[in-house]
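Contributing new records

If you add data, match the layout below exactly. Sequence lines come first and carry their own label; structure lines follow with theirs. Keep one chain per record. Anything else will be rejected by the validation script.
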Amino acid sequence: MNRALSRYTWLALPTILLLTAALRFYRLDQLPPGLWFDEAWSSVAARDSAAQGLYPVYYAASFGGMHPAIVYLARLANALSDYPLSLRYAVAVVSTLTVGVAFFAYSAVFELDSRKPYSVFRKPFSELHHSQFTIHHS
């Protein structure tokens, strides 16, 4: 169904993105403290692959390895900043933008009514409630 999004939808999207960013970036430099293993490993793998000029499809390691997207994101974060937690901030930006993309996907899946301002919030939860009701009571 090809339809234009209403003004309520365009007001809901920035509200949701601002809430997402506020929750995602709140004390990001302090919680969790220090670098976690995967953040440190991704940064080291990004540094090493950048020094060698390699772009592997998969980063194998003793723990199983890692998808290259996070390592490429670490390369970009390391190129923009020498701050040790730059990867954490880069992942926070990508995850906040992902919520915006998911917003449009959910509005297409749930076929939100653009004439009702709160259908952006009500319809997905009512669908979820009905699906849970059907699962529990079938």
